[in-house]
Amino acid sequence: MGSERVHVICFGNELHGDDGFGPAVHAHLAAAPLPAHVRLMRADIAGLAAIGCFEGCGRAIVVDALRGFGPAGSLHALDPTDFATDAARAEAPAGFHGAGLGALLQLLPTALEQLPQIRLIGVEAARVAPFSPGLSACVAARVGDAAARIREAWQ
To answer: Hey, which of 65, 71, 119, 152 has its CA 20 to 30 A from 86?
Structure first.
């Protein structure tokens, strides 16, 4: 299983508070050597341009901040079906260029010839606000935990 191509795709914007969780996990993972079969990617917006991140791999691990799944700072591992049905109500409409991760995950089966196995590692956001850099303390405390969970998943 360790030779299967794995893409770790980190979504978010570090200038919008806890929406910077994905970029923080990306930076944490990038600080150490990665196995040859793992590709670490950053996709700021979950729009059409992110579809290419899911190509050419057998598994994709998606990292993002969440809303509506538990108390602030809680870490979750979800399947796309869980996220698409439960999180759709928690996503704010942002126009199709950034319609949200739920919309992107629903689009992938029609956009890709071969759909990878997808797992979402997310943290419940405490504060998301434009032009407010920095993670809240409860979200920042989970960056290392999320990175450890991702390392286990790519084995």
So the answer is: 152
